[in-house]
Design a protein that fits this description.
With 280 residues, the chain is α/β, with parallel strands linked by helices. It has helices at 4-10, 26-29, 55-63, 80-85, 88-104, 117-128, 145-152, 188-201, 224-232, 257-273; strands at residues 32-34, 39-44, 67-70, 109-115, 133-137, 159-161, 183-185, 210-215, 239-244. The strands form two sheets. Strands 1-3-2-4-5-8-9 form a seven-stranded mixed β-sheet, sandwiched between helices. It starts with a helix and ends in a 7-residue tail after the last helix.
C-alpha cells in the first residue's frame, strides 16, 4: 500500500491545473444516450473522469440492443475548477436524472453500472429506487489510507497534478478511454467520503442482484469495501464477485477493459433472461 508521502512525490501540489481544459476527444468524452429496447442501463464514470472511462462498457451493452445512458457527472468534463465548484448533492441529482430519463423512454427494467465514484452514486440510486441489477466497479466504500490522509489535508493541499500530464501532455497518453483531468481537487474527496458513508449506512435498502468488480492492482480502494458491502447489503438477493488480476483502479479503461465489459454484459443479460431473479 503506498504511503501518503510516497504518493506526494509524484502527485505534487499544482494549482496551475485548475483552469486547464484537457484536449478531450468529444466523440468519446461527452455524455452518451442510445435508444434501444425496453432494457435501460446507466453507465457512470468516476471522480475527475469522463464518460470515455466507461465507454467500452456502454458500447458492449448497446451491442446487446439495450437503451444506454452514460451521463457526465455534474462539474466534470471541463476544468478542475468547475469540478471543485460542484457538490455531492449535484452529483447525486445527476444520476437521478439519468434514471428518470430511462423511465421516461419507456424502459421497464433499469440497471446501473458505475466505476469508482460512479459506483457510489449507482449504489445510492439503488437505495432510493428499485433497480433490476447493480454493478459496483472498483467502488471505494472505503478509500485507501493515503487518500483518507489527502482528504484530511485538503485545505493545505487543495489541488494536485498527475505526473502523466507534465510537459503539456494529456494524462491519458494514447488511451482515449482514459480521458480525464490533468490534476485533481483533493477537496472533492470530502464529498466522495460523505457519499460513501451515506451508502454504507443504508446498504440494507439495496434489493437487487449486485455485481462487485475489483482490480488486483487497485491503489485507491480499500479491499475491505467488498466485505462492508456483503455484510451490509442483507436484502440483495445475490452478490457476485469478479476480480481482474492485471487491472488498475480504472479497470474499465485498463488492459482488461474488454473482459470487464464482457463481465458486465454477462451480468445484465443473465438477469434480463431470468427476470425472476430481479423480483422483490
Amino acid at each position: 500500500m503506498p504511503s501518503f508521502f510516497t504518493v506526494l512525490k509524484d502527485y505534487l501540489p499544482n494549482k496551475a491545473v485548475l483552469d486547464q481544459r484537457p484536449p478531450f476527444d468529444d466523440d468519446l468524452s461527452q455524455p452518451l444516450f442510445h435508444k434501444g429496447n425496453e432494457i435501460g442501463c446507466i453507465t457512470l464514470h468516476g471522480i475527475g473522469g469522463t464518460p470515455a472511462n466507461v465507454r467500452v462498457v456502454a458500447d458492449a451493452l448497446i451491442a446487446k440492443g439495450y437503451t444506454v445512458i452514460s451521463p457526465m457527472i455534474p462539474g466534470h468534463g471541463e476544468t478542475v475548477r468547475a469540478q471543485n465548484a460542484s457538490t455531492g448533492a449535484q452529483w447525486l441529482d445527476g444520476i437521478r436524472a439519468a434514471y428518470q430519463r430511462l423511465k421516461d423512454e419507456g424502459c421497464t427494467q433499469v440497471y446501473a453500472l458505475g466505476l469508482s465514484l460512479g459506483g457510489i452514486l449507482c449504489g445510492l440510486l439503488a437505495e432510493e429506487e428499485h433497480l433490476d441489477g447493480l454493478a459496483l466497479i472498483c467502488t471505494p466504500i472505503r478509500m485507501k489510507r493515503y487518500l483518507r490522509i489527502a482528504r484530511a489535508l485538503s485545505l493545505i493541499i487543495p489541488v494536485v497534478g498527475y505526473p502523466e500530464s507534465r510537459g503539456g501532455k494529456p494524462a491519458w497518453g494514447d488511451n482515449l478511454y482514459a480521458q480525464m483531468y490533468g490534476g485533481f481537487s483533493t477537496r472533492k474527496l470530502v464529498d466522495l467520503g460523505r457519499l460513501a458513508r451515506k451508502l454504507k449506512k443504508n446498504l440494507d435498502k439495496i434489493d437487487c442482484p449486485t455485481l462487485l468488480i475489483s482490480a488486483a492492482q487497485d491503489d485507491k480502494v480499500d479491499p475491505a469495501s467488498i466485505e462492508i458491502f456483503c455484510t451490509g447489503a442483507v436484502n440483495a438477493p445475490s452478490v457476485d464477485l469478479s476480480e481482474f488480476d492485471h487491472s488498475p483502479h480504472g479497470c474499465t479503461y485498463g488492459p482488461e477493459r474488454k473482459q470487464v465489459a464482457a463481465r458486465c454484459v454477462e451480468f445484465v443479460s443473465a438477469l434480463v433472461d431470468n427476470p425472476a431473479r430481479t423480483s422483490v
